[in-house]
Amino acid sequence: MIRRLVLDVLKPHKPSVVELSEALSHLQGVEGVNIIINEIDQQVENAKIIVGGIGISFEDVKKKLEELGATVHSIDEVAAGKRIVEEVRTPQDRSARM
Amino acid sequence: MKFLDQIRVYIKISGVAPISRRYFIMNAFDGATTVLGVVVGAYVAGIPNELWVIWSGLGATLAMGLSGFAGSYMAEEAEGTKKLNSLEKSMLTELKDSVVGKASRFASMWAAIIGGGAPALTGGVCLIPFFLSIHGSFSFSSAIQISVVLALSIMFLLGAILGRISSRNILFHGVKMLLVGLILTVIFFALKLT
């Protein structure tokens, strides 16, 4: 049971992020959507899409995005189960970043 | 309702609205001008009855409608395909089944309907007085006068629409467009006098 999906998506300028977020928010199991534009090129834009809900279907999200002309580049984060487990920092992470 | 929403989405995505507006004004003006030419020409040549004007006017209207439809469709289809191919290259994926591809195909058809419908509509409106004249609503010479007034009114209206689109003086732009029709009419009447 997926509760949160973070996707790296490439999309054309149209449909806009407004239409994209509205379309995704109407999917079954989706309770909220957040889209952040990371980069804008001449014809396309790169967006980070965060989908939250209870029982999100990745296939439905992917299909809807493809219907709207977008492509999923990577799945950057998935949270599933009875509750969302947040990322935790470990000493190893800190040393790796240094 | 869902169908209309879909159309609204396609118009927004394809950006066909300003293009179809241009096609509408250009081709509607063509339709009114051509039928005005036919009507004034028929008057100058001394055509005896309505049927001559109706058939030649309908022929011109049909030809303009078909030419507007086919021309707009082919031009927009080529432009749409070029744009879609370029976008597909940037996206590194096929988009023909996506809303972008569907909007592109819709845009060609939408432009064709507007491009073909506009001259047929304005041309047809200018011919209405002759149909009414056949049924005895008014005389042939009155039909000619009403048709000329209708054509000139359409031209004024199209100019006014352009004025409104560009947020400028509606009256001035209406009169500017009307002048073209008046020039055509004056040329024909001058020919009759010579």
What's the CATH H-level superfamily name of chain A?
A: MTH889-like domain
User: How far apart are the termini of chain B?
Assistant: 59 Å
Mean pLDDT of chain B: 92
SS class of chain B: mainly alpha
Q: How many strand units of chain A?
A: 4
CATH class of chain A: Alpha Beta
- Number of H/I helices of chain A: 3
Following the backbone from N to C, one meets helices and strands of chain B in this order, namely: HHHHHH
Low-confidence stretches of chain A: none
Assembly context of the chains:
heterodimer
CATH fold name of chain A: Alpha-Beta Plaits
DSSP strand (E) fraction of chain B? under 5%
- Topology order of chain A in helix (H) and strand (E) letters: EHEEHEH
Number of domains of chain B: 1
Q: Could you say which overall geometry of chain B the principal axes of the C-alpha atoms support? A: elongated
The interface involving the most residues is between: A-B, 14 and 16 residues
Please state the structural category of chain A: alpha+beta
Average pLDDT for all residues of chain A: 93
The Rg value of chain A, from CA coordinates, equals: 15 Å
Cα radius of gyration of chain B in angstroms: 20 Å
Portion of residues within helices of chain A? 25-40%
Q: How would you summarize this macromolecular structure in one to three sentences?
A:
The complex is a heterodimer of chains A (98) and B (194). Chain A is of the alpha+beta class and 98 residues long.
Q: Can you walk me through this structure?
A:
By secondary structure, chain A is of the alpha+beta class. In chain A, 27% of the residues lie in helices and 46% in strands. Chain A has a four-stranded antiparallel beta sheet with strand order 2-3-1-4, covered by helices on one side. In chain A, strand 2 and strand 3 (44-56) form a beta hairpin. The model of chain A has no long low-confidence stretch (mean pLDDT 93). Chain B is an all-alpha fold and 194 residues long. Chain B has one domain. In chain B, 88% of the residues lie in helices and 0% in strands. Chain B contains six helices and no strands. In chain B, helix 3 runs antiparallel to helix 4. Chain B is elongated. Chain B starts with a helix and ends with a helix. Chain A binds chain B through residues 10, 12, 14-15, 19, 41-44, 66-69, 71, and chain B through 9, 12-13, 15, 86-87, 90-93, 95, 97-101.
